[in-house]
Amino acid sequence: RVNLSSLSEEARRAMSASDGPPNPGELIRQKSLAKALQDIADAGPRAFYNGWIAESICEELSGRGVPIATRDFADFEPEWVDPLEIDYKGATVHEVPPNSMGATTLLILRYLHQIDLKRLRPNSRERIELTLKAAQAAYRKRDRMLGDPRFAKINLDEFLEVEGETRPLIEREQRVLGDADTTYFAVADEEGNLVSAIQSLFHHFGSRVFVKDCGVFLNNRGSAFRLTGPNGLAPRKRPLHTLSALLLGKGDEPTIALGSSGGELRPQQHALFTTNIVDYSMGLEAAVDFPRFLWEGGNTLDIERGYTGLRNLPFDVHQIPYPGKTGVAQGVQRLKGSVKAVCDVRGDGLPVGR
């Protein structure tokens, strides 16, 4: 929940026909947003980077002391990039490359590739300990090596190499999974195509900066920058961000599109889903529904009820109810002659077919 009083008057008007939260069934007409979306639909994506939309955003930010100009928009070019790919115990796993932290998921799996998880119960203490050692080692390497590849020299082959040392990293801090504004969606069509997609403003209403002329809130992904290292702040640089999405399958044929909300915890979630499916032969629905454990940073470990043998774990263990606030996943799976769609019990989701 967000206190609407923290938003500008223009933002509050855009979100509700009254001065308070919208009422059930209330019809909200966002005419400025509709105009911006229609212009982009009519003229194509460059309509966002050139013309009145970019001018409106620059005017709003300049008024807040941000050194930005329309040429910063005009000079920007989105990129088509190849997904990252590894083999995990016979399954092909695809993730999003930097400046996403999707490679962190793959490094966790590289560590777990060496371990016969099938000999361990999926809800066992041993699985938790081994997965967290892999996750902590991967996060440490992420902080050391990942950033915007246009600015930082990133050797992904080196990043994905398994290092011998996986000592716990209890002292590391990371943002916990609080209120966020992320939506994951998976799409399959009749021709066999799969789309694994995610979008986000990061926190609720992003930066809470509202551009009234085009009806949009600006995200706060810039909060992920650091002052030094590969993710250090620099002009026209993109921050290392948390958004990533999974494709799983055999060889060159993905059969599952899967992902979740979750911020910095997403690599752990994706590794859990993958090991549930590959190591424990769970179906897609069971893999998404299975109780989760997530290292929140520092000494904090959140565990949904359903795990055993938790005494003396070297963490401050928070056992949370099931289903807990551990991200909301969605997925689709291509089957012979049909498609399965799965929505997480932990939040909103809707399978839609035609």
Features:
354 residues, alpha+beta, 2 domains, Serum Albumin, Chain A, Domain 1, six-stranded antiparallel β-sheet, three-stranded mixed β-sheet
Provide a descriptive summary of the structure in words.
By secondary structure, the protein is of the alpha+beta class. The chain folds into two domains: 4-74, no CATH class; 84-180 and 242-343, Serum Albumin, Chain A, Domain 1 (Orthogonal Bundle). The protein has ten helices and 13 strands. It has helices at 9-15, 31-43, 46-49, 52-62, 70-74, 102-112, 125-145, 156-159, 266-278, 284-289, and strands spanning 84-88, 91-95, 182-188, 194-200, 209-211, 216-218, 246-250, 253-260, 293-297, 300-304, 316-320, 329-335, 338-343. The strands form four sheets. Strands 1-2-7-8-12-13 form a six-stranded antiparallel sheet. The protein has a three-stranded mixed sheet with strand order 9-10-11, with no helix packed on it. A hairpin with a 4-residue loop joins β5 (209-211) and β6. α6 (102-112) crosses α7 (125-145). The chain is globular. 34% of the residues are buried. Mean pLDDT is 91; it is low at 167-177.
Please write out the topology.
Layout: H1 9-15, H2 31-43, H3 46-49, H4 52-62, H5 70-74, E1 84-88, E2 91-95, H6 102-112, H7 125-145, H8 156-159, E3 182-188, E4 194-200, E5 209-211, E6 216-218, E7 246-250, E8 253-260, H9 266-278, H10 284-289, E9 293-297, E10 300-304, E11 316-320, E12 329-335, E13 338-343
Parallel strand pairs: 10-11
Antiparallel strand pairs: 1-2, 2-7, 3-4, 5-6, 7-8, 8-12, 9-10, 12-13
